[in-house]
């Protein structure tokens, strides 16, 4: 299974009170946590990460990626998905996996298990899940990948699998905090505490 790795990093951080993607967390910018992990996996497969950005400082932090600009992030999540797909192209032989840049505690081994399970499932779409709660990353191939170009506004890939749930593979996460993303500054201590409690 050939994979296009896409990191969505063009959000406006409106609820955070500043640029959350560059907020220092455990010694590096928030956005670098998931990026560094997927970059390592992609490099081992001779593949590349594409990062969709809307700010120069975030582009610099993710300069090791193929950087794609979203000129209108206010149009919502769908616009970033589509910017990436226009850059890399859509192929029947390729799966497209989308990560969000504010999900810092998703470990490499869980990513690898998710991809292996999806490949073996034969499904067109996949996401992670913990006790019924679904979350990122999401992966798409075949007609479902092409259908991402029809999304509008803040509708992500979940809009597609809600319409065709029989095409969805769900990967059971070992820990709930793997799915946590950071929306507000107050999320950081609470979610870090949750992480420590789960070990």
Automatic annotation (TrEMBL):
SUPFAM superfamilies: Nucleotide-diphospho-sugar transferases (SSF53448). It comes from the Bacteria. Residues 6-164 form the MobA-like NTP transferase domain. Pfam families: NTP_transf_3. This is Nucleotidyltransferase family protein. It comes from Anaerotignum lactatifermentans.
């Amino acid at each position: 299974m050939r994979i296009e790795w896409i990191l969505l990093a063009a959000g406006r951080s409106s609820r955070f009170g500043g640029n959350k993607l560059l907020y220092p967390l455990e010694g590096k910018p928030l956005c670098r946590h998931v990026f560094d992990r997927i970059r390592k996996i992609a490099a081992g497969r001779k593949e590349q990460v594409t990062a969709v950005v809307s700010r120069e400082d975030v582009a610099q932090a993710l300069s090791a990626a193929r950087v794609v600009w979203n000129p209108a992030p206010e149009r919502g999540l769908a616009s970033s998905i589509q910017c990436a797909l226009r850059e890399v192209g859509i192929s029947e032989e390729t799966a497209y996996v989308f990560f969000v840049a504010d999900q810092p505690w998703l470990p490499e081994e869980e990513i690898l298990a998710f991809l292996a399970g999806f490949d073996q499932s034969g499904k067109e779409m996949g996401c992670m899940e913990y006790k019924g709660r679904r979350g990122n990353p999401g992966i798409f191939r075949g007609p479902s990948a092409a259908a991402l170009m029809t999304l509008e506004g803040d509708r992500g890939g979940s809009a597609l699998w809600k319409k065709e749930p029989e095409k969805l593979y769900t990967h059971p996460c070992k820990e709930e905090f793997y799915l946590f993303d950071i929306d507000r500054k107050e999320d950081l201590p609470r979610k870090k505490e949750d992480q420590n409690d789960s070990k």
